[in-house]
Write a structure and sequence with these properties.
CATH class of the largest domain: Alpha Beta
Radius of gyration: 23 Å
Strand content: 15-25%
Low-confidence stretches: none
Shape: globular
Keywords: Iron, Iron-sulfur, Metal-binding, S-adenosyl-L-methionine
Cofactor: [4Fe-4S] cluster
Mean pLDDT: 93
Organism: Candidatus Scalindua rubra
Number of domains: 3
GO molecular function: 4 iron, 4 sulfur cluster binding; catalytic activity; cobalamin binding; metal ion binding
Number of strands: 18
Pfam family, one: Radical_SAM
Oligomer: single chain
Number of helices: 18
Strand order of the largest sheet: 2-1-5-6-7-8-9
């Protein structure tokens, strides 16, 4: 093929052992392969680095069951081998271009890899959400030649074609380019027409990456991209900022055509023997009712278990009954904060606790498993408001009550609020989802860490034990022994999570 001698190495800088396949890199790889380029992916997922993995935090706080990755043939690789293996890959593959996509959490790792191979005559491009919201910072890295701001499939494809053909590439939409002391800053191109994109290519990853645990059980699981964007305006999320950035070049919230979705589902079943689908959509049930009904009608013939994210205001008995008919196995419901006044004013989530409880109880009565997502440590939160979240979670019985610690991600209104309140410095960058970031007078980092550690205990244990559980918040000999006692007690009662 015309471009088969042009080699592109894509780096997926990932948190250790976060196993769900990524749609973004897979879609970019598929687009490049469709044009005939030679594409390879270097994936950091199976390396144990100095960064404490999210699964370790979740296991130690009783949010997920500990699993044995060797059961599905997954072998951990030492973090010290990461840079050696990456360098070996570059030397052997000889890429013409290296593309890195990062989040704020993984950006430092990605740049460290790129610095290892800088000055080798390889064009280096960086994209992803962190780059989109911090373009000047990322392009200032000496190892970076080009950045992609926004969606990347068409931008990197056009870039590679021009380079391969020996043509100028300084005016491609969604890119900024450094060249001979100049920076060419191009505007945003039209948002991707999802119907024109090829199916994501998951073969660029290790075949073991298809396994993902759910409730302590490994499944062959693939993501199914249903939509991009979101209609809501949560202040802790980057989706509203994306909608604002791209407001002049298209509608940020887009749903894929159902024919295309079911074609990709069929491909996943035939090619990868999928046992479980994860529907990638910020809020799955916000789709038009006509689209939902047609999806259910067609999916009832497939009946492979699936899982998705949604919000409580999208749930009613009729919807849940139809999801049961289609063999929906699990849903995750975003609650985030249990203090109604704070949730409305600071987070811009306009729903009452009464309606949240009613929605969760509808799912509780069904055959569908569900988890509820919570965040603690929001700016200006107190111990009392965090206990409002615990109280709300105690009002129904979910299969899992997940908890993260608030992080002030770039591009979100709450980040700017935290900078203005001096809870973080302007240069602060998020390291992970499970360590407190804010220095604020209303609650200490140690208190937040303690409540994160014991979040499940407060939800699942008897209220008469709360005084004792408070001891477990402390990272002391007594605290850890108390935590161990209550953890063992819950696990012996076959706690389902």
């Amino acid at each position: 093929m015309k471009y088969s001698n042009f080699r592109i190495l894509l780096i997926y800088a990932n948190e250790p052992f976060t196993l769900l396949m990524p749609i973004g890199i897979s879609s970019i790889a598929a687009t490049l392969k469709k044009e005939g380029f030679n594409v390879k992916v270097f994936d950091t997922t199976f390396y144990r680095t100095d960064q404490k993995a999210g699964n370790i935090y979740r296991e130690s706080s009783l949010q997920v069951r500990k699993v044995n990755y060797s059961d599905v043939g997954i072998k951990e690789r030492e973090g010290k081998d990461l840079f050696k293996d990456f360098l070996k890959t570059v030397v052997e593959f000889k890429p013409n271009l290296i593309g890195l996509s990062t989040t704020e959490v993984t950006h430092e790792l990605g740049i460290a890899l790129l610095n290892l191979v800088a000055n080798r005559g390889i064009i280096i491009m960086v994209g992803g959400v962190h780059t989109t919201f911090n373009p000047d910072e990322v392009l200032s890295e000496k190892c970076v030649d080009i950045i992609c701001v926004g969606e990347g499939e068409l931008a990197i494809s056009e870039l590679c074609k021009r380079i391969a053909n020996g043509n100028d590439y300084f005016d491609i939409p969604n890119t900024w380019v450094k060249s001979n002391g100049r920076v060419y800053k191009n505007g945003y191109g039209e948002l991707e027409d999802l119907t024109k994109l090829p199916p994501p290519d998951f073969e660029v990853f290790d075949s073991k990456r298809i396994y993902r645990q759910m409730g302590g059980v490994f499944y062959k699981m693939l993501p199914m991209e249903f939509s991009r964007g979101c209609i809501y305006n949560c202040t802790y999320c980057s989706a509203p900022a994306f909608a604002t950035l791209f407001g002049g070049v298209g509608k940020w919230f887009r749903i894929k055509d159902l024919d295309q979705i079911f074609s990709e589902i069929g491909l996943g079943i035939e090619k990868y023997q999928v046992e479980y689908f994860y529907i990638v959509s910020e809020t799955f049930l916000t789709m038009p009712r006509k689209v939902f009904d047609e999806f259910i009608k067609r999916y009832k013939k497939i009946r492979i278990p699936f899982w998705f994210n949604t919000r409580p205001e999208t749930i009613n008995e009729e919807v849940v009954n139809k999801l049961e008919e289609a063999n929906c196995h699990r849903m995750s419901i975003g609650i985030e904060c249990g203090n109604e006044k704070y949730r409305r004013s600071m987070l811009k989530r306009n729903i009452s606790n009464e309606k949240i409880i009613a929605a969760c109880k509808i799912v509780e009565k069904s055959t569908i498993q569900f988890s509820v997502n919570n965040i603690i440590g929001f700016p200006d939160e107190t111990r009392e408001t965090i206990f409002d979240t615990i109280k709300l979670n105690r009002a129904f019985v979910a299969d899992s009550h997940t908890c993260s610690i608030f992080q002030p991600f770039g591009g979100t209104p709450l980040r700017q609020y935290c900078v203005e309140k001096q809870y973080i410095d302007q240069e602060f960058r998020v390291g992970n989802f499970y360590e407190p970031s804010l220095n604020m007078p209303s609650i200490t980092k140690e208190e937040i860490k303690g409540l994160f550690k014991t979040f499940q205990l407060y939800i699942r244990c008897d209220e008469k034990d709360f005084e004792d559980i408070r001891k477990a918040e402390k990272d002391t000999e007594e605290g850890n022994e108390t935590f161990k006692y209550y953890s063992t007690k819950l696990l012996s009662n076959n706690m389902n999570f």
